[in-house]
Specification:
Length: 130
């Protein structure tokens, strides 16, 4: 008896046998042209470029607005906003001492964090004006 072929995934967000999910999105023609040009220059597909950018961003994404509190970046809840980066943190005394012993360097009291990108889709229109 012949094996049955696996059914093809259909519909929005349907997962394929490879674990991949289809994504359809709309964007400005200018943005599409820039992404296409970047992919061609890198000799990769547009799908690879967009997938890689999404993976990178999703691993560093925080809901809300970044706010500098006592010298370190924290997230303040704000619907319609996300940012991409690393939140800061304060080091406890044990961590500071361990760093001094292992590296001979003082890590300081805190790591400030980094902000790569802020997106604001509220009525303030920080990202877009239309």
């Amino acid at each position: 008896m012949a094996k049955r072929r696996a059914k093809k995934a259909v519909g929005k967000g349907a997962e394929t046998p490879t674990g991949k999910v289809a994504l359809q999105l709309r964007m400005d023609a200018t943005v599409h042209q820039r992404l296409t040009a970047a992919a061609e220059e890198a000799e990769i597909s547009l799908n690879q470029l967009v997938g890689g950018l999404c993976r990178w961003a999703s691993e560093r994404m925080h809901q809300g607005e970044p706010t500098l509190e006592s010298g370190i970046w924290e997230a303040r809840r704000q619907p319609g906003c996300v940012f991409i980066g690393s939140l800061g943190q304060r080091w406890d005394v044990a961590y500071q001492e361990a760093c001094r012993e292992q590296t001979g360097e003082d890590p300081g009291e805190a790591w400030k964090g980094e902000i790569f990108c802020r997106l604001d889709f509220t009525e303030r229109h920080v990202v877009r004006e239309d």
